[in-house]
Write a structure and sequence with these properties.
By secondary structure, this protein is an alpha+beta fold. The protein has helices at about 1-10, 30-50, 55-80, 105-115, 125-150, 185-205, 215-230, 245-265, 285-305; strands spanning about 15, 20-25, 25-30, 155-160, 165, 180-185.
C-alpha cells in the first residue's frame, strides 16, 4: 500500500538512464547516436533551405560537416576544462561517446571557423544563409539534448516541479542521485522550450522574414532561456557564480539584437553587388549578369528609333 501511495504522490517525469541500446551483440551508445542524428538532420534542413538562395546542397553539407567537426572538438575541450573532477585520466578528454559536450565551446569554435569556410559564398546572401544554418542548428540541438538526457547530465538539485526528473535508477554522468527523488534536469527543460522556439523560426521562414531575423530570434531567445535554465545546474564549474554557457549567453543576446538591427537597417544601394545574382561557384557569371542587360537596352533603343551606328571601317 505504501509503495502504491509513494508512486501516486511522486512528482516529475519518471526517469531511468539509458546510456546504451542493446540489439543482440551490438551495443549502441545513445549519447553518440542522438548527437549524430541531430547533426545529420540539422545539416539536411540547412542544405535544403539554402538551395532557395542559390547555394548547392553539397556546398552547405561540406561546410556543415567542417563546422560540426570543429564544433565537437571545441565543445568537448570546454566541457573537459569545466568538468575536470569527472575525468579519470587524460584519455577521458577524448571519450565523447560517454557524454559531455559544452554547447558554448562548440558555438565559439564554429563561429571562428565559419568565415574561412564560407569566404566564397555570395556576400549579399550570407545573412539569409545564416538563417538556414540557425534553423538546422536549433533542430539538431534539440535532438542532441536527448543524448544528454539518456546519460543523465546537466542536472540540478532536488525539486517538486512536475517537469522534474523523477529518478528511478541507472548509471548517470552526474550524481550521485537518490532513487525515488525528483531532480531538475535542464536538458529536459531545454528540449521543452526549444519546441516553441523552433516553431517560431519555421513560422518566420514561411512568412518570408527579412534575412537575419530568424537568426536574431534564435540568438536572443536561446540566450535568455539558456541563461535562466543554467541557474538550476549544480554540477557545472562556475566562475564568479556563472557557468561557461551563461557567459556565452551574455554575448549571444546583444549580438542577436545587433543582427536584428542590421536586418531592419535601410540598405544602401551602393552596398549591392553582382554577387546577389551570380551563381556562388561562378565568379565570371557576375560580370556577364551585369553587362548583358545594358547591351540589350542599347539594342532595344536602336530598334525603337530605327537608327543604328554606321559600321566602322575595317582597319587597313
Amino acid at each position: 500500500m505504501s509503495l502504491v501511495s509513494g508512486t501516486l504522490l511522486a512528482t516529475g517525469i519518471p526517469y531511468y538512464s539509458f546510456p546504451t541500446i542493446t540489439l543482440g551483440p551490438i551495443h549502441i551508445r545513445t549519447f553518440g547516436l542522438f548527437v549524430a542524428v541531430g547533426i545529420l538532420i540539422g545539416i539536411t534542413i540547412a542544405a535544403r533551405r539554402n538551395e532557395r538562395f542559390g547555394i548547392p546542397s553539397r556546398d552547405t553539407e561540406r561546410v556543415g560537416f567542417i563546422l560540426v567537426a570543429s564544433g565537437l572538438i571545441g565543445a568537448r575541450l570546454l566541457w573537459a576544462a569545466t568538468h575536470i573532477h569527472q575525468l579519470n585520466g587524460p584519455l577521458d578528454v577524448f571519450a565523447v561517446w560517454k557524454g559531455g559536450l559544452q554547447f558554448s565551446g562548440g558555438l565559439i569554435s564554429a563561429v571562428l571557423i565559419a568565415p574561412f569556410v564560407t569566404r566564397k559564398w555570395p556576400r549579399t546572401q550570407k545573412w539569409a544563409l545564416l538563417d538556414g544554418a540557425i534553423m538546422g542548428l536549433a533542430v539538431g540541438q534539440m535532438i542532441g539534448r536527448f543524448g544528454c538526457i539518456s546519460v543523465g547530465e546537466h542536472l540540478g538539485g532536488p525539486t517538486d516541479f512536475f517537469l522534474g526528473m523523477h529518478y528511478l535508477g541507472g548509471v548517470t554522468v552526474e550524481g550521485p542521485l537518490v532513487v525515488g527523488q525528483t531532480y531538475h534536469n535542464t536538458a529536459i527543460y531545454e528540449v521543452i522550450w526549444l519546441i516553441p522556439v523552433i516553431a517560431a523560426l519555421f513560422w518566420l521562414d514561411r512568412r518570408g522574414a527579412r534575412p537575419g531575423v530568424i537568426s536574431a530570434t534564435f540568438l536572443i531567445s536561446y540566450g535568455v532561456l539558456r541563461f535562466l535554465t543554467d541557474i538550476l545546474r549544480t554540477h557545472d564549474e562556475r566562475v564568479f557564480g556563472l557557468t561557461g554557457a551563461q557567459y556565452m549567453c551574455l554575448v549571444l543576446v546583444p549580438f542577436g539584437l545587433w543582427v536584428l538591427w542590421t536586418a531592419y537597417r535601410p540598405v544602401d544601394e551602393t552596398d549591392m553587388s553582382g554577387d546577389e545574382i551570380a551563381a556562388p561557384d561562378d565568379a565570371d557569371g557576375a560580370d556577364s549578369a551585369v553587362i548583358e542587360p545594358a547591351s540589350d537596352d542599347v539594342e532595344m533603343s536602336d530598334a525603337m528609333t530605327g537608327e543604328s551606328e554606321p559600321e566602322s571601317p575595317s582597319p587597313s
